[in-house]
Amino acid sequence: MRLLSAFAIGLVFGCGILISGMGNPAKVMNFFDVAGTWDPSLAFVMGGALLVTAIGYRLVFKMDRPAFSSTFSLPTKQDLDVKLIGGSAIFGIGWGMTGFCPGGLVPVLGLGLGEPLLTGAAIVAGMLAARLATRMTIKEQPAGA
C-alpha cells in the first residue's frame, strides 16, 4: 500500500507540473527574466503549493502517526551551515541556467528530449561530486576534531 501511495502522489505531482507548464524551461526562465519577458505564473504555482503544503502539514501533524509508518521521521538539524547555503546557491544557479528543477525535471524526462536528459545527468554528476567532496572532507579532518 505504501508503494501504491507513493506512486499516486508522484503521479499527481507530475501531472501538476505538466499542467502548470513548469516542465517547460522557457516558462521557468521567463520568471527569472524580470527586466524582459517576465512571466509571474511560477510565483502563483509556488504560492499554491505552499498553501496546500501548509494545510497538509496541519492535518498530518494532528494525527498520532503517519498513515504508512509507526512514527514521524522529521529532521532534527536546524542550523544553517556552509553545505546548506552552498548547495542552495548551486541549486538556484542550475535552475536559473537550465529552467529545470529536479521536481519539474522528472516528469519531462519521459518525453525523451535531450535537454532534460542532459540536465538530469548534470544533477546526478553534481550529487556524486558532492558525495565525493564530503567523503574527502571527512577523511582530511584530524582525529578528535
UniProtKB/TrEMBL annotation:
Check the record and name the InterPro entries matching this protein: DUF6691
Keywords of the record: Membrane, Transmembrane, Transmembrane helix
Segments traversing the membrane: 41-61, 82-105, 117-134
Q: Which Pfam families match?
A: DUF6691
Q: What is this protein identified as?
A: Putative transporter component
Query: Which organism was this protein described from?
Result: Roseibium album
